[in-house]
Amino acid sequence: MPNAPTYTTPPAAAIDALLGAVSFDSAGLVPVIAQQHDTGEVLMMAWANGEALRETLTTGRVCYWSRSRKALWRKGESSGQVQRLVDARIDCDGDTLLLLVDQTGVACHTGRHNCFFQALRGGRVAALARPLVDPEQLYPG
Amino acid sequence: MPNAPTYTTPPAAAIDALLGAVSFDSAGLVPVIAQQHDTGEVLMMAWANGEALRETLTTGRVCYWSRSRKALWRKGESSGQVQRLVDARIDCDGDTLLLLVDQTGVACHTGRHNCFFQALRGGRVAALARPLVDPEQLYPG
């Protein structure tokens, strides 16, 4: 697979412009879809606040907001499974983001490449993919 | 482009099983990503409640919940731009759905094929795609 395009940090005024085009919800969050930039695979959905989004755009490394931990969630900080930003897209209403990323390793905490692996098969909810990595290896200790 | 696979309505017990695997939020909603099944294009993100999801799985035609209108939103009911369901995927935490669909026409109310057409270009937020259909044709009167 070719390397992801090199990310160039936009000027601060451009980052402000993008943030200004986003409608955050009443909790100050916006849903963020991460899609592998070259294959089109939808990897995961998470949330960002303004700070997480600003960090993502500034560093080129995707940062979410963890609603459970109530803290910035630098994707891959524990697991090494980072997401490099390729492009950030805003939807028509400004209330959802689509990040085109280059995923290192696996996106899902279960060790699967993406989080959307459950579907109805044979009348029951089944896992369509197996873990590629042991979750205990991703989050040791 | 080949026709979408024919959708077969699952047995009622299977639909119950899928609904039971979904974690709806405190408002009874779950975010739903719609992806074109064959090209991988992410078309839009919207919300569903249990009733919308049950209707989608039963009819094979995607139905959301409109948070602004507080009503079921049968995608394409006004515009004709329907989404046929190909497969419904649930993420690892059960709190996001990815619907693989076959989009008739355009997904976005602005007349663009997908909703994620805004991004930073040249230091400002720019539209990356033009409308393929005049929105006034989509929503006459």
Q: What topology emerges from the helices and strands here?
A:
2 copies of one chain form a homodimer.
Chain A: H1 12-20, E1 30-36, E2 42-48, H2 50-59, E3 63-66, E4 71-74, E5 83-90, E6 97-103, E7 118-121, E8 124-127, H3 135-138
Parallel strand pairs in A: 1-6
Antiparallel strand pairs in A: 1-2, 3-4, 5-6, 7-8
Structure overview:
Chain A has 141 residues and is α+β, with helices and mostly antiparallel strands. Chain A has three helices and eight strands. In chain A, a hairpin with a 5-residue loop joins β1 and β2. The first copy, chain A, is globular, with a radius of gyration of 16 Å. Chain A starts with 11 loop residues before the first helix and ends with a helix. The model of chain A has no long low-confidence stretch (mean pLDDT 95). Chains A and B meet through α1, β1, β2, β5 and β7 of A and α1, β1, β2, β5 and β7 of B.
What proportion of the residues of chain A is helical, as a percent range? 10-25%
β-sheet strand percentage of chain A: 25-35%
Mean pLDDT of chain A: 95
Most extensive chain interface and residues per partner: A-B, 41 and 40 residues
